[in-house]
Amino acid sequence: MRVAIIGMGTAGVSVLRELVKHPKFNQLDIDLYDDKVNMGQGVPFQNDSSELLINMPSKKMSLNLDDETEFWKWYKQQTDFNFDEPAYLPRFVFGHYMKSYLSMFTKKISKYIN
Question: What total of structural domains would you count in the chain?
Fold first, then answer.
C-alpha cells in the first residue's frame, strides 16, 4: 500500500512515527512531502526568532507519547543552544529537535520512504 504524508511538521512526523508501529509497516511505500526548508520542523518551529517561545513548559513537550520529557532530555544533551531561562524555550529549538528526530528516525526506515 502506498501512503503519502503531506507536511512534515509536528503532525507529519508524528504520523510517520505511528505508522512504523503498525504490524504491516514493512508492506507500505511511504512518500514524504514538504519543502526543504521546513522538512521535519514545520512552519511554526522555523528559525525565525528566539523571542517566539513555545507555549508549553519545555519539560512537558515531546514527539514521544511514551516519554513527555524527551525534548527536554534532547535539549540538555545538545550543544548548539543554551538559554538562561529554559523553562519556555524558543520555538525554533523544538524545530531543531523535530529535525534531528526525523533524521534519526528515517535512517532506520529509509528503505520504506521515498
Answer: 1
